[in-house]
Amino acid sequence: MPTIDSHHPFQVHLNLVKGLEVLQVLRGLQRSGKQTLVMVTHGPDLAALADRRVHLEQLRRVEAG
Question: Which pick of 23, 30, 42, 45 has the fewest CB atoms within 10 Å?
Answer without folding.
Answer: 42
